[in-house]
Specification:
Number of helices: 13
Largest sheet: 8 strands, mixed
Number of strands: 15
Helix content: 25-40%
Shape: globular
Amino acid sequence: MEYITELSFNEKKTEDAPLTFFGSMVLNNQQNSVPQEFVWPDHQKPSADVPILQVPLIDLASVLSGDQFLVSEITKLMAEGAKQHGFFLVTNHGVDVGLMSRACTLMDTFFKSPTCEKQKAQRNHDESWGYTSSFAGKFKKNLPWKEMLSFRFSPEEKSENHSRIVEDFIIKKMGVGYKDFGNVYQEYAEAMSSLSLRIMELLGMSLGINRSHFVEFFEDNDSILRLNYYPKCKQPNDVLGSGPHCDPTSLTILQQDFSGLQVFVGNQWQAIPFNPQALVVNIGDTFRALTNGRYKSCLHRAVVNNEAERKTLVFFLSPKMDKVVKPPEELEGEREYPDFTWSMLHEFVMKHYRTDENTLEEFTKWLKTR
């Protein structure tokens, strides 16, 4: 597997010699432009002026009140957002504010470490967890301007094996000096997993099915917690922090320190409004299949700026690898997608396809060739 490395701008790069390391400080300090690997085609370059997307604001405190009228209104709002573009904001979500603050602040401990330190957690080519800089070596062009640290999380591992899977991974890769670091993200993943099940309960209600159906389907989830670090860039209008994509997973919960997320709706890019009290939630391809196409998984991207870094924490809820993804009977009708397991879709996007708005359709074609 190829990796991205520092490239001297005075060296002539051959067609087959990709960058093998993303060092934003080095690249920003160069007198020349950022390398072409990071420059996106003109039709995909970000605009400095995009409209604000109107997304439903879901106050989960209303749900806890037990007021059935309020619960009904909340599920209607959820359905509205999920059918239009798959995005909504949640407030009063119950996740400890102090934990969220520590999780965001601690990201600097890792991402501002020397490269050799970060590479202790280097992601293996066949895994979704570990450290990677700008999709190291996976692609040769349209590279994202970011670094990532991802962790696998499964509540089943904790209940059956008494394993603290996130903390154990960090200690194994980085050493016991990172125990507190690992503990924070272990607690964070547990909190987001619990929150995702509460949201799944409401999504089930919004679809008119048994409120426990999706909760039970995802209670033994096999998910990913990802820390995204978007350094500032001297050419923010030429690069993207994350290129246009749809999440192949089921549900995404995003914490961000300021705005930078855009969604492609109504044939134009629109910005998700920044609300420091809210988490951003969006539907992924797997849940789109579970609803038989009723709820949307929408194309989105992340932009960067030339003034400050941006940090996000993202929890990607996914079912257990061997669970069969199929709509409940109430939603079946004429099937949009065939039955599949998350392990099949995961293999497809890891080895065969760069995620976009056509991922499920291309995945369906690929399944027929297996």
